[in-house]
Task: structure prediction
Amino acid sequence: MGLLGSSSSCSSLVAVVLVLNVAVVCNGGKTSTFVRKVEIGNDMPLDSDVFQIPSGYNAPQQVHITQGDHVGKAVIVSWVTVDEPGSSTVNYWSENSKEKKQAQGKVVTYKFTNYTSGFIHHTTIRKLKFSTKYYYEVGIGHTPRQFWFTTPPEVGPDVPYTFGLIGDLGQTFDSNMTLTHYELNPQKGKTVLYVGDLSYADRYPNHDNVRWDTWGRFVERSVAYQPWIWTAGNHEIDFVPEIGETKPFKPYTHRYHVPYKASNSTAPFWYSIKRASAYIIVLASYSAYGTYTPQYKWLEAELQKVDRTETPWLIVLMHAPWYNSYNHHYMEGETMRVTFEKWFVDKKVDVVFAGHVHAYERSNHVSGVYSTGIGHKGALPLRRSL
Ligand SMILES: [Fe+2]
Result:
């Protein structure tokens, strides 16, 4: 959870007796020499090498995978063809077996004002073995392309696993640095927890969906080889009634499928998965979450299903953070915090990851902080540890 900002802004607010405590809460240490630039980055131009279209007739592009069931024995493979629909078949085989199996999928398209998408394929491979490397091939019949992934270990308490964390990536020159930074990390993340805001295509006139395609090609070098667990952010909403686009999340939901039905969710914006020793709950900051809403009722039931003897780690992903001391997006997560925080405390959620705010913050466990302090004279934060 991001929280509370610099020690100077915190300590100036509270009584002396709390300074030691505040200093501990506010100072999470320094783990990087990276200093963010002040200016907003420019998007990489359309002819950048990272956006290169693979050669060959109807060659699959924008290949990406995510977990395809609740426990990690299935993978959703998605890709785009542009010349014709072609085949939605995925050929796959394990490292130790040359016998190719096939999975069949489906193809979807969508229009967004004057933009027409390519043919977007989604094919789920099921009944995979745990801890196994698989090769897979898409573009069957025209220009096949081959990739691979490794399935996670069977869900259980004693299976170490390494997650990466990325959010708000976009497609600027800095985005490329961020992705490279992740790829070169010696810890070798096996799965990315993606906390929302993908392409930022909505920064362009008519939300130029060509920028969804470039983003898909940009991140393929990682997401074709390891699953990214998707969370919807505000840049996925794409609600533009002035140009006739009144169905929110249209590009996102056509391009990025998630296994929401496997956790009895009724919408792809909130769902859960188990992976290795973690139970991961994805929440939707931009779908209704008030009392009695589908997301509220789902989460209420979902939290009862978590068995910490099986998955000792309980992780929640969301886009808008509940705690944020930065000026941008200040307190945008407050109403969701008020709605759900007590449940998180009661269920001893280990960690909450959020995006949205382009300034890194983290804190120890906190709850019940009704004001993060900035400009709120007299609001004394309340804190307690889990
Ligand atoms: Fe955002």
